Amino acid sequence: MSLRKILIVDDEEVDQYICKYVIEKFDPTIATLSAFNGREALDILRQDDPDAIILDINMPIMNGFEFLERYAAEFDNHVPVVAMLTSSIHDHDRDVALRYVFVDVCFQKPLTEDHLAQLANTWEQSTQS
Fold it and tell me: Mind giving me the DSSP string for 38-86?
């Protein structure tokens, strides 16, 4: 069994495009959902159940950290894998993200096939538990 659906949460269209391109190249059977801020992501999660979330930090309306806070409060069952994907080089941002038990990894932009391999491996491990 492999990843079936990934929610990409990023306000930059170019970053959304890169993520979709890399995911398609990695495994063309993986479907993608797009949100351009945390609020849109929460709306999608109320209706859909992706296997993973790739989440940017700096976004308008609701940033990645605000999303994590609301997500933790609102959802009892968390998506198996949440990955932060950011251009931030600050260790503090990474440390804050990893405080949430459902955040598994932090990646530096841009998304790569190696990142997706790690994401898929983390997903497989979480579904076997």
Answer: HHHHHHHHTT---SEEEE-S--SSS-HHHHHHHHHHH-SSPPSEEEEEE
**Which pair of structure tokens corresponds to residue 52?**
């993973």
Q: How many C-beta neighbours within 10 Å does residue 71 have?
A: 21
Phi, psi of 92 (to 5 degrees): -60, -45
Check residue 111 and report its DSSP letter.
P
CA-to-CA dists, residue 107 to 29, 41, 43, 98, 115, angstroms: 22, 19, 24, 12, 7
> Based on C-alpha coordinates, what's the Rg of the chain?
13
Instruction: Collapse the DSSP code of 78 into the 3-class scheme (helix H, G, I; strand E, B; otherwise coil) and give the result.
Output: coil
Which amino acid type is present at position 119? L
Q: How far is CA 71 from CA 12, 17, 82, 91, 117, in A?
A: 21, 25, 11, 22, 25
- For the stretch 17-63, pLDDT in tens is 999 999 999 999 999 999 999 999 999 999 999 999 999 999 999 99
